[in-house]
Specification:
- 40% of the residues lie in helices and 16% in strands.
- The chain is α/β, with parallel strands linked by helices and 267 residues long.
- The protein has one domain: Alpha-Beta Barrel (TIM Barrel).
- The mean pLDDT is 92.
Length: 267
Amino acid sequence: MAAWPGGARGALCLSFDNLGVDEATSAAAALPALLERLAKRDLSATFFVEGVNTELAPDALRAIAAAGHEVAYHAWLHEQWGDLSAAEQAENLARGVAAFAELGIELSGLRPPGGQLGADGIAVLRESDLGYASPAGQGAGIEEGVALLPFPWRHVDATSMLPGLDPVREQMTGSPEPLDGDAFTGYLCEQIDLLERDGGFVTIVLHLPLLAWLGKRNLTALLERLRDAGGSGDLWLARCDELAGHVLANPANFEAGATLDPTTWST
């Protein structure tokens, strides 16, 4: 079993995806209240955002970083990362790294839209000096000098309710019917209970544009459950870049590695 700082049994990263790719769909307006909620509970998170927001919402990106959260990369325009060639990935990533650097933000990791890194994705990240990737899958590990911090699709809010994902829900829950915010939050809290008991690594993926679907009551319940879990000492709650640093510094503890999920869909 992987060893986490402070003797914690498990580790968890709370993450938020998408500020939107144009002014009409930007979720930046939801940020101030969210950042306040996180600060009130002394929680840190990783925000995976599209590079285009360096142009559309630079103040929002600066606010995320200033609040102590990590800003990480989610492609330039939410391109299906696994469908890009290695050259296209490298160009996309270089554009993003440069644009975020102009705002004083250094990127450490990537969450590939669609969940897949592609055949040469690890090499692209390594050559771009990024330390980690968060594709679809489970566990935590290292591949070719890059930390892997996967997310399970069942831990993604969008898979609970978006139209067109009926087969996905049937595979995960036994029913194609959409789940509501209460059911999704209940499931996540159960997973936190298991993580405290059994250890391991979990990533939770919430989308800023879907926070209204989740609801304030459920978001509050989830954040307070995370606060309590972190305070108990059984879980290490950390940003993805912090988790990646620990994994890379302790390779012998992560020999079992990560298990990647080849399933892909656009979220």
